[in-house]
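Is T5A placement plausible here? Inputs below.
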Amino acid sequence: MPSRTSPPANAPAPASPTAESAAKPTAKPTAKRSAKAGSAKGKAKAEPTPAKAAKSAAPKSAKAPPKPAKTAGKATAKPATKPATKPATKPASRAAARPVPTGRFITLEGGEGAGKSTQLRRLLARLQAAGVDAVGTREPGGSTGAEIMRHLILSGAAKPLGPLAEATLFAAARADHLDATIRPALARGAWVVCDRFADSTRVYQGALGNVDPRLIAALEEVTVGETRPDLTLILDLPAEEGLARAAARSGRDADRFESEGLSFHRALREAFRALAMSEPERCALIDASRDADTVEEAIWQAVSARLKLPAARRRRRS
Ligand code: T5A
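Reply from A.M.:
I modeled the complex. Tokens:
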């Protein structure tokens, strides 16, 4: 378990007012997720699979079934002077309001080479050390079918068809990923950390590809539905830095989107920043130009402040 220290005192300030310092707890889980847990599809392997080892670490509380509602029978045993309706209805309504056990859904977004994959691994390790059953996954990909589509899209084979076709391909891959990997994990109470998600379609195909926003919204509605992220960490750094990092990485040629020009990547950064500003409750803008340890700590602060970690383990760490 990486036990990392606080950021150095001279660490640069967060990049914007919505950045990690805006630790406004928004801990409400995303509303009723239409989980298709337990389906045969749910057994499909996600890639990458860094979180397999964490399966047994699920906090008991996350899996505990809701307590049964108090029975209305008690009310009838009360003296006749007391109205029977109050005790009979109150426990029932409390039971109805009790949430179905569900995990949390965190997404990492940002431009090329921003450090999403690096930080996903680090966040998973910290969540697991905090006693959370945490699963790492990515887009495009994360399920058998979606990984096939990843290859198709990132090879550039679909580029001649245009951004609208690419948006639908990303959406189709996402639908499979949600059904096979994300929803089953959330339904069992796991936390899912995903490298890119629907915001990438909004930005790459929507904002930059000029695909009609109504189509982007409709695709999101149909594929994502209620499985919206509880927290989106947007890693922000100048496009030049991100591209330099991606290029310095050995053993890999530039893919379909990395090979776009600098102006594309600058516009990309601005679109992600605008997204963070437009949804501050869900999004935290993280200054990703700092060293990896400092970025990791900033992410951990944002996650701890906005989502409720298992209390006992969290106290032990501090
Ligand atoms: N896409 C995706 C769409 O257009 N629409 C969609 O709907 C979706 C879902 C996916 C592509 O698909 C597009 C967007 C993408 O172009 P990908 O291969 O998954 O392609 O690529 P990216 O998601 O862009 O991820 P990258 O692998 O390029 O970059 P990361 O994950 O952001 O960065 P990472 O962690 O691999 O780091 C890059 C290098 O920098 C170093 C790392 O060691 C590594 O060498 N690094 C740092 N160096 C200095 N300081 C730090 N803080 C560092 N952090 C990492």
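Short version: The chain has twelve helices and five strands.
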